[in-house]
Amino acid sequence: MLFILTGDIRTGKTTWLEARVRELEAVGVPVRGVLAPGVWRDGEKVGIENVLLPSRERVLLATPAGDGCSTGLGWDFNPAALARVNAHLAGLNATAVEKDVCPGLLVIDEVGPLELRRGDGLTAALTLLDSGPTPAWPHTLVVVRSALAEDARTRFAQSWRSGELLFPDESGARRLHEALL
Question: Where are the beta strands (DSSP E) in the chain?
């Protein structure tokens, strides 16, 4: 099952997801992929990290854009960090079909306009999502902002047959637990 966790900016999607990851891991469900928590200083978002799962390696992915922002998205993405995260995700893709791996959840936080509209950024995440379910992760949760939720559902519908929208609330947590536990 493909779950699309959606909500507007600053609605707690990543915080909600971090809690679900801890809960699932605590009961033995393997979680692989990437989380994207913000880096905050004095109430201001000063960066975006990627936390590689399951190792918890942290990579500073982006910082607020200066005048020469190449993406037009308000963030400057570190090319070396993007390469590191893409390599991590490509490594997961290489093990996706291993039959002796314990099935779990693939987490991709987040797929945005850089990926869905430009084919750039976390391109290895798109490859994983386009591949559909595997023995390693029969379930995947991808984080997408509300404005892109239908784009994501449409893009991945063929590979996953459907995409269920989740929201960062108790109902979403219950639904995820029902599918995985």
Answer: 2-7, 31-35, 38-41, 44-53, 57-64, 75-77, 105-109, 139-145, 163-166
